[in-house]
Design brief:
about 100 residues, mainly beta, Immunoglobulin-like, five-stranded antiparallel sheet, two-stranded antiparallel sheet, 1 helix
Length: about 100
């Protein structure tokens, strides 16, 4: 299961490690509902990992709504993908709008 917290300066992708022979976890990104996946983050495996966690800190260049999934990768290829989670970068990385504008 791939999950992440919403509305934070740091987004952390968390997932269960269900295999023992992977070399990397790969977070893949696609424009929402486009089903056109590209490798977004490739994270080396730490021995004994049972829960993976990958963080994005700060501003992401692309704004918009994106789907994410994770695959395990080794020299033979990729596992099947995890579930898909959707993240609106505008909700997470842009500052909140100011409130209560007044003229005196």
């Amino acid at each position: 299961m791939l999950t992440f917290p919403l509305f934070a300066e740091e987004v952390t992708f968390s997932f269960n490690d269900n295999s023992t022979n992977e070399d990397f976890f790969v977070i893949q990104q696609s424009v929402e509902n486009a089903n056109s996946w590209v490798d977004f983050i490739i994270e080396p495996i730490t021995d004994g990992t049972t829960l993976g966690s990958v963080s994005i800190i700060g501003n992401i260049v692309n704004s918009g709504v994106f789907d994410y999934r994770v695959v395990a990768r080794n020299s033979f290829g990729d596992s099947g993908p995890s579930n898909i989670v959707t993240l609106d970068h505008n909700d997470v990385f842009l500052p909140n709008e100011p409130t209560i504008l007044s003229i005196e």
